[in-house]
Amino acid sequence: MVFILVMLVASLIGYRLFVLSYLKHGWYSKTAEAQRENINNVLARGNIYFQPDLFLAGTNKKFPLAYVVPANIDSDRYDDVAGELSRILNLEKDKISQVLKTKSANLKILSRRIPNSQVEEIKNLKIKGVGISYEMDRFYPGQELAASIIGFLGYDGDKRSGQYGIEAYYNDELFGKSWQANDYINPANLASSFTSLKELVTGKKEDKKVVSTEASVDRPSDIVLTIDKNIQTVVENKLEELIKKWDASAGTIIIQDPNTGKILAMADRPTFDPNSYKNFKSEYFLNKGVQEVFEPGSSFKPITMAMGLDLGKVTPQMTYTDTGYVDIAGYKIHNFSDKVFGLQTMSQVLEKSINTGAMHIQTLVGDENFLSYSINLGFGQRSGIDLPGEVNGDITNLYSGRKINYLTASFGQGVAVTPIQLVNAYSTIANGGKLMKPYVVEKIVKDKGEEIITKPEIVGIPISEKTTNKLKAMLISVVDNGFDKARIKGYDIAGKTGTAQIPDGKGGYLENEYIHDFVGFAPAYDPKFVILIKIDKPKGITFAADSLSPTFRDITAFLINYYKIPPTRQ
Fold first, then answer.
1. Strands 55-68 and 152-156
2. Which of 570, 320, 347, 299 is nearest to 470 (CA)?
3. Rounded distance between C-alpha atoms, residue 81 and residue 125, angstroms
4. β-bridge mates for residue 252, sequence order
5. What is the DSSP letter of 221?
């Protein structure tokens, strides 16, 4: 019995030592290093990387801070000390004096993240009770680059926590639930931290600040994004130019690999710098690609066309006669600019963006089928992308039973989508009919190099490959015959624009204010990327074909060159 008891105790001690020396080794090493450098607020938090070549998107960095311990400063010198610190740190002298007059024995921080010049000046003062310390905090080398994807490390109450983007969605993987400032064991004093077998096994000790096994997590993981830094940089620059050119209030660009669902770039304007997020409006933190809805307008017409083709109700060459409007339930629904096109094929319906043509297809498809295809193509529901706060979009009009709602939805009015839903639906057309689950994290790298790799996931197959081949040819024709500024010599480019009215919140629409969008892909018959561009309330221009085509062309040309894609036509 004694032998068994000794072996049991030895096993428990061995297990605890294994946990401390092996499983927690990475975290304790960081903590010990931080202590040697007098760093406060230790953050054992993993890195975030862009593609390619693991360029740092988010990491931990040592930042200097200036502090005082009022009790250690001679009260006769308060005024002189406050004056010197005010001059160096550019702070109000009176506020520093108030801190000094507390005569507190605790360290009082005056300024964080101070430049090296201020660090040296404060050190040169050589005043007892005045000094420099360091704290580990989050640093984003790219500044505004992909800020709405990355998010930032902020606070949840008084605890550090990831806010928005990857920092929030993967907070537990990057940080853990309870690693807080001072919640650590000094490895150098580890032996003296335990006084009983129970304490050694459980890690719990009364009246001392230690980490319990229940509260701890694995070593923080690193996150590798699908976002390509080179593509993201180009996209953000182009979006910035676009916003300025048309004095738009906001804009979004998303680039997706249609064959896997991975997001190659996702940009928003306006945006923010996560290094100084407190200086920006909170609405800038939202990722509009997944958290904002809009009526897509004519870029929804290829979705309606896909339904008609898939059910065999229409063919690209089938004709109908446009009279310029449709009368339904006391409403008269017109084409844009009240144009009348006469006899037209289904291909021309997309080329000329004819509203009555989309309504004709919807009538042939039927209301029930229209709703079913809309759902199966991902509208009215979250895509499942690994970003926080994704919204559903809104297709509730299609549950009303009112025919007019189906007719207006056929050309993208009265239904609201998110940019990620729309680009993902076009990826379904591009890849041969597979609705993919979009994602922004390529892999999670755990301690000891273990990798959890995201595998592409097919959510469903809402349309046939035969349907997509027909629709691709029609969308090539749209670019060839309609958007000369989007064409690229030697390549099959597919795409469609949308110019949509903006709801006024009272059942109507704002006057002379629109949302422009353009969604397309290339090379059309073997697509490597799908691009969505959207801007809000552009000024001095009416149609998206004119405002967005040049930017679409520029980004497409860059990607063709970047991926070294050979020509697909003479």
1. unpaired
2. 347
3. 9
4. 268, 534
5. P
Hey, where are the domains in the chain?
61-139, 226-279+289-562
Buried b (16+ CB within 10 A) or exposed e, 497-530: bbbbbeeeeeeeeeeeebbbbbbbbbbbeebbbb
Eight-class DSSP state of 20: I
Q: Which two tokens stand for residue 377?
A: 């193509």
The residue assigned the tokens 């182009």 is 238
Using the structure block, give the residue that is written with the tokens 């919204």: 391
Residue 117: predicted pLDDT:
94
CATH topology of domain 226-279+289-562: Beta-lactamase (3.40.710)
Rounded to whole angstroms, the Cα distance separating 428 from 417 reads: 16
- For residues 310 and 364, the answer to whether their CB atoms sit within 8 Å is no
Q: How many CA atoms does the CB half-sphere of 331 hold within 13 Å? A: 10
Phi, psi (degrees; rounded to nearest 5) at 11:
-65, -40
User: Is it the case that residue 206 has pLDDT exceeding 90?
Assistant: no
DSSP string, 78-124: HHHHHHHHHHHHT--HHHHHHHHTT--SS-EEEEES--HHHHHHHHH
> Which tokens in the block code for residue 261?
């669902």
Say if residues 333 and 413 touch (Cβ distance below 8 Å): no
Nearest to 356 by CA among 426, 432, 410, 286: 410
Cβ neighbours of residue 18 closer than 8 Å, sequence gap 6 or more: none
Two structure tokens written together for 366:
């039927």
CATH (residue range 61-139)? 3.90.1310.10
What's the first-to-final CA gap in the chain, in angstroms? 88
Q: What is the pLDDT of residues 175-205, one digit of tens each?
A: 854 333 333 333 333 333 333 333 333 344 3
Please state whether beta strands 48-51 and 55-68 pair in parallel, antiparallel, or not at all (unpaired). Answer: antiparallel
pLDDT tens digits for 245-261? Answer: 999 999 999 999 999 99
Closest CA to 430 of 504, 492, 368, 515: 492
Q: Using CA atoms, how far apart are residues 267 and 262, in angstroms rounded to an integer?
A: 15
Distance, in Å, from the CA atom of 236 to the CA atom of 245, rounded to the nearest integer, reads 14
- Rounded to the nearest 5 percent, the helix, strand and coil shares of the chain are 40, 25, 35
For 262, the token pair is 């991975």
Residue 328: CB atoms within 10 Å: 16
Give CA–CA dist 27/491, Å, rounded: 52
pLDDT in tens, 389-405: 999 999 999 999 899 99
